[in-house]
Amino acid sequence: MEKLEIATIYTGNSCTGEAIIIPAMPVNPEYATAYVRYQTYGKTFTPEEGLKQGTIFPELMDFWVN
């Protein structure tokens, strides 16, 4: 069984509302359907490393590499 990645989103602006935990991607995705993964941000690359990687968010690199 695959490990289910979850994301925490908030119902209000600026993380002020109630927290809701949902899957980062659909559990049973359909073929030929576009999905945008919920993004959770933690640490960031330095500006120089971000230019090399094409993003300042390491989590996005982990998603594309795997």
TrEMBL record:
Q: Which InterPro entries match?
A: Spore_coat_CotJA
Protein name per the record:
Spore coat associated protein JA (CotJA)
The source organism is: Thermoclostridium caenicola
Superkingdom classification of source: Bacteria
